[in-house]
Design brief:
The protein is an alpha+beta fold. The protein has one domain. The chain is built from two helices and three strands; from the N terminus they run βααββ. It has a three-stranded antiparallel sheet. β2 and β3 form a beta hairpin. The protein is globular and about 20 Å long. The N and C termini lie close together (10 Å). The relative contact order is 0.37.
């Protein structure tokens, strides 16, 4: 899982990161799992 600004980017660039991976709140709040 990747840490996207520790949740910061995840909240501000959801659509952008959505294409990169899936948001996993169970991680660090900003963890993205490449799918």
């Amino acid at each position: 899982a990747r840490t996207a600004g520790r949740g910061y980017r995840a909240h501000h660039h959801r659509g952008r990161l959505r294409a990169v991976g899936v948001h996993d709140r169970r991680g660090n709040g900003g963890a993205w799992s490449p799918v």
